Amino acid sequence: MSEKASFRSSGGVRGWFGRQPWYIRGVVVLLAAVAAYLLPYVGDVPLIGPQIVTEGIDWPSALFNMSYYVLLALGLNVVVGYAGLLDLGYVGFFAVGAYGTALLTSPDSILYEDTGWKWLMAVPAALVLTMIAGVILGWPTLRLRGDYLAIVTLGFAEIIRIVATSTTTLRGDRGFASIPHPPGSWGGEPIFGVTDAIPYFWLGLTVIILVILGVRNLDRSRVGRSWLAIREDEEAAEVMGVRTFKYKLWAFAIGAFIGGLGGVLFAGEQSFINSQTFVLQFSILVLAGVVMGGSGNMAGAILGGVLISYIPDRLRGLSFGDTDLYEYRFAIFGAAIILIMVLRPQGLIPSRRRAMELKDREKEVAPQ
Amino acid sequence: MTEPHQETPEEWDRENARPVDEAAPTGKPASAPARNDVRGDVLLEVDHVTLRFGGVVALNDVSFSLRKGEIFGLIGPNGAGKTTCFNAMTGVYRPTEGAIRFQGESIVGKKKHQITRGGIARTFQNVRLFPEMTALENVMVGADAHHKTSVISALFRLPRFWREEKSGRQRSLELLRFVGIAHRAGDVSRNLSYGEQRRLEIARALATNPTLLCLDEPAAGFNPAEKEDLLQLIRRIRDTGVTVLLIEHDMRLVMGVTDRIVVLEFGKKIAEGTPAEVRDNPAVIAAYLGVPTDAA
To answer: What ipTM does this complex have?
Structure first.
């Protein structure tokens, strides 16, 4: 098919990947997945280990942090990258997922007498709750465009945080403690314990893989095309028969679902949440990750999610002379973002379409 | 308006391929009513439509109807209300008064995507593609208008997804071939040449499987050879059974291809008829030359 042909013509690693037959691609993907599952053990690998392993936080915990940041970046990428809806309040959905879990499971919850569920039972309920939150936010606001939508979503996240801070049911700073861990035991010991973060990372990674498969399926279908068409020219899309409102609402609901997944995992690992966790800065950070990695492209969003989590964690426990570098993490992080945006305005891994476009422009400049 | 150049009625006479009916400058050629009768039923009816923007009357009591299977021209000087009329017919504007009926059913107040799915497709005066999607994907968005793949069936790759994806892709490739840009199927539409982009827009509109295709100045910015190609493309589209509404500045193109024409000036209909009738209508000549009617 000609679409594939042009994909083949592109260079670099992805160009090579696209030229391979399906079984080679399958093997490569499988090896990459296995390598990802083995990441907690790279601390022991000579040469690689000490360079990438964090010092101030144990490496598996840093990996788990990366996993929920990656989830959030993937979810926000659907909203911002595919459908082109600027959402500055994405942390709101993360909060709804986490609070949903806490309310249904924590002994501190007023619902505990009635529910007191296990973590796994609370997961679907919390996810449905976040999707409903996505639709509730989207229904009245998706008539707005661009900056106006951004402001409304910003307000949404603040509302969630302020409600969590000031209502007694949501317990503000005191938060919810003793949220149960995910279930399962191995040789009499629970798999998801307090000390070892490796199982949590594996759980997060598995969820990420499922989300990647799901979003990929949506992207390469009528749904993904409708999102892109809305992003490119909303009115033209509508005139071509796209139900713009419906698909924007779906983008919001799916983004909310993925954000909620992040929140559910976070609550299950931390076992404690309070209103301090869900600050606005968090939304901005995830958005920065998506843009930095390459908006509209899952590989880019993943890389962005990894970086926004890894850079600050890597700086923990490091010092330069007398200065504790972790104190300056946001300054260093900000400088890194500016540098990336100056050197690679399309993001670290630009979407395939944008990459092709840049390549064609190069050809125009230097015709053979 | 993208094309400031206007041709005078004299130019139509000189350059039009059809013989000019010298004998009947104001009257109707004998052949015209017979030919009109051969045409099919009324497809779209613009019924006493008035459209006001605040104090500005953009359309004033305009009535005409399109018949099945014809190529219909809507012409007029700059600012005559052609595009406004066009937008009212495709659901972008809602008429202040009057009705617009498509296949006997009112389309006033319907949503744009409903009108598209009902069988009216359009292109834009300034090309409005989805610049970062490939040419094939652009056309597939149009083809998706009649698909029913839901988020669930896309997510789990249910049989309907495979069926519609395959047929939509084939149909889109056929349409790209039909308009003559199949070799650019995999290219990002932003990188297509201007002429290719115009053709792609037509293919995308055709993909929605329209009964009526509305083209808003499709020849703007074309050279004579490209215009000739476009003329043939429009005829081929008509031959597939699609009714075509053409808004155009270029008189040669309009005169050469249309079956019937309506002329607008200052939001009013000033003439209607076959190209030959319209060309010799004194009101039309006055409108284009800027002379008062009584002096013509």
So the answer is: 0.84
